[in-house]
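In the previous lecture we treated proteins in isolation. Real proteins rarely work alone, and many bind small molecules. This record shows how such a complex is specified: first the sequence, then the SMILES for adenosine-5'-triphosphate.
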Amino acid sequence: MMKNAVEVAGLTVVRGRREVLHGLDFTIPAGQVTGLLGPSGCGKSTLMRTLVGVQAGVTGTVTVLGEPAGSPVLRHRIGYVTQAPSVYDDLSVAENLAFFARVLGVDRRETRQVIEAVDLVDHADQVVGRLSGGQRSRASLAVALLGSPSLLVLDEPTVGLDPVLREDLWAMFHRLADGGVAVLVSSHVMDEAERCDRLLLMRDGVFIADGTPTEIKEKAGLDRAADIEQAFLTIVRGEAA
Ligand SMILES: Nc1ncnc2c1ncn2[C@@H]1O[C@H](COP(=O)(O)OP(=O)(O)OP(=O)(O)O)[C@@H](O)[C@H]1O
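The predicted 3D structure, ligand included, written as tokens:
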């Protein structure tokens, strides 16, 4: 198993006329849930798009599963869920999965497994357009799980979900990581930080901290009982001082 699913050096991204990521160096290990946390607009989606290979204006070295980001061989090895649902409203959950399984060349039997994994068995025959927002985003997640990707890139997957479902999804992320998958999850709410094995804290296109939740709190001079939001603010204020 590859130790690092992602290796990035000197990553800069220009969108429009603005540089939105400013020379990032980092790795994302296999077998862990890495959280990408930071305020709205700091560049999380841009970073994820870069790893998936769909972002323009990229300079630097971005290696994903041993290949340059965007390489066609990676297509089946990365699962990506954006903030907008990527399933068809007029098809049922099962029909959507059957369609994407065919596009990806994945065994149709896998569709059942991924529907179970996201807990949509009871809604499998329901048209996606009539699902709740949370159910719809889980349908997108099921699509991303097809083909057992080695890297899962999830842009704010738990937004709008109730606490029980959030709990279930985080348990699933950790099960996948235990199986060797590199799971990258973004969030702009810091209260999910503690659920991650490791955190990348981002602000204005740079990382202000990289480590386990405990390491980051220590770096900020706080004890374990503190929350990551406090650590984030402490680090930001320290930099400004
Ligand atoms: N097409 C674009 N052209 C120019 N600038 C853009 C474009 N898309 C996004 N940006 C800018 O790039 C920056 C980073 O955006 P990005 O979507 O990566 O942030 P984010 O951290 O994912 O935010 P959110 O949590 O709100 O999704 C923002 O300041 C945004 O205004």
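Summary for your notes: The first strand starts at residue 4 and ends at 15. Residues 163-178 form the longest helix (16 residues).
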